[in-house]
Amino acid sequence: MPVRADGASWLLSLEASVDNLLHASDVALSANTPRAVTLPALRPTMADRAAAIAARPGVDAALVRYDPDPVIDLQFARHPPLLTPAADALGFRHDGDLGRLVERVLATIQSQEATA
Question: Which of 22, 35, 46, 113 lies 20 to 30 Å from 62 when distance is taken between CA atoms?
């Protein structure tokens, strides 16, 4: 990985993104409702991601090696904590936990491979 093991970035699965878009179509707007919000997202470290994927049978997190490239690390592994109180109050949600996000992402990949 060209990033630090403790580097973190914001993640939201395709399924959660679509759920949030559908939810947006149902949000009741008033004069005080924000018209743009930052969606909630998970912020796992790269090592947490590797461990979540390795929790699946036949996958070994020890195979992951971290060799940070300063430019890539800066772009993809330095996201600060994400606070989204306006979106949270309006009912927007992230995947809930990293295990669920990994399952959703891998299911999307498998679905795309099956149709290719």
Answer: 113
